[in-house]
Design brief:
- The structure is a single chain.
- By secondary structure, the chain is of the alpha+beta class.
- It has two domains: 132 residues, Trna Endonuclease, Chain: A, domain 1 (3-Layer(aba) Sandwich), CATH 3.40.1350; 105 residues, no CATH class.
- The protein has eight helices and eleven strands.
- Strands 3, 4, 5, 6, 7 and 8 form a six-stranded antiparallel sheet that branches. A five-stranded mixed sheet has the order 1-2-9-10-11, sandwiched between helices.
- Strand 7 and strand 8 form a beta hairpin.
- It starts with 17 loop residues before the first helix and ends in a 32-residue tail after the last helix.
């Protein structure tokens, strides 16, 4: 079987084999695809922000002018997920809980007259456990199932929690309708769990022209209406790496260069640094870098 390990290409390859890398991408599992988004510099997402993920090798269909794009990674950017329980703490009062749920959204339909297996799959994808799913599906007509949810900030940190109320309608033909309403402090949750994002990907090598590559990635970002893009490279100089990062291009070294590995400010434990935990920090190397323990 052909190895699909994107981390370890043959060191004897002096010129990047674009066809082999595309083949590796096509065979890569979810874990390896996630590593591309998490371990690049600057990182596109944190592990807990990535839900489902898939890759389409080759240029996007019906997108003239993007023939230079080698693949498009699509992933579910997680914005909220069920919490372990209600917010608690010594300084947390009933009034605080009420302030977190002072606003209410309109009733939203998660699924309309789906069969039992589809209803279970949707609730599992939302993060509910088996016993919670059974409670939701067996609710009396006038009853609601209440659960606390955590939100995730763009940088991956926990935001304000909110409460989500579910109700179920079961019909004589065995189908189910799942509906919910959100109770929140100020900003309404933007989705049920996550929003799908596209990341155009290009494979480069030492003979690639900086300007041409950058122009191609910018065009792909514009046409796909996304803010992020990814460049897989076999070798880059320090100046090239810094230039790409400053222009908003995330880099993933197929040779796992120590330069790219140690340049991630969000992996540094030096919290006093103004660049600490910034995904878009244009830092390529840092003598004060302190790795997570």
């Amino acid at each position: 079987m052909i190895s699909s390990d994107l981390m370890h290409l043959d060191a004897s390859i002096s010129r990047l084999d674009r066809n082999q890398v595309q083949l590796d991408l096509a065979l890569a599992d979810e874990h390896k695809l996630k590593s591309l988004l998490v371990n690049c510099s600057s990182a596109i997402a944190r592990p807990h922000q990535i839900g489902q993920i898939r890759v389409a090798v080759g240029p996007p269909p019906n997108s003239d002018g993007l023939e230079h794009i080698d693949a498009v990674i699509e992933y579910e950017h997680v914005w909220c997920l069920p919490a372990e329980g209600a917010p608690s703490g010594e300084d947390f009062s009933v009034r605080d809980l009420q302030s977190l749920t002072r606003c209410q959204s309109d009733l939203k339909t998660l699924a309309w007259r789906v069969n039992l297996s589809e209803a279970i799959a949707l609730l599992q994808h939302g993060g509910f456990h088996e016993d919670q799913i059974q409670r939701i599906l067996q609710l009396p007509y006038e009853a609601w199932y209440r659960s606390w949810w955590d939100t995730l900030e763009p940088q991956g940190h926990l935001g304000l929690p909110f409460q989500r109320w579910f109700r179920t309608r079961c019909y004589s033909d065995g189908t189910y309708t799942l509906q919910y309403t959100d109770h929140y402090a100020q900003d309404a949750p933007r989705c049920f769990r996550g929003v799908w994002q596209q990341v155009p990907l290009m494979i480069s090598h030492s003979s690639g022209q900086f300007g041409e590559i950058l122009t191609g990635l910018r065009k792909a970002r514009h046409m796909l209406k996304t803010d992020r893009c990814l460049l897989l490279a076999d070798a880059l100089t320090d100046l090239e790496a810094e230039a790409y990062i400053r222009q908003g291009v995330s880099l993933y070294s197929l040779q796992q260069s120590p330069l790219v590995e140690s340049s991630l400010c969000q992996r540094c434990d030096r919290v006093q640094c103004p660049m600490s935990d910034r995904l878009d920090a244009p830092v390529v190397n840092c003598k004060a870098y302190v790795s997570h323990s």
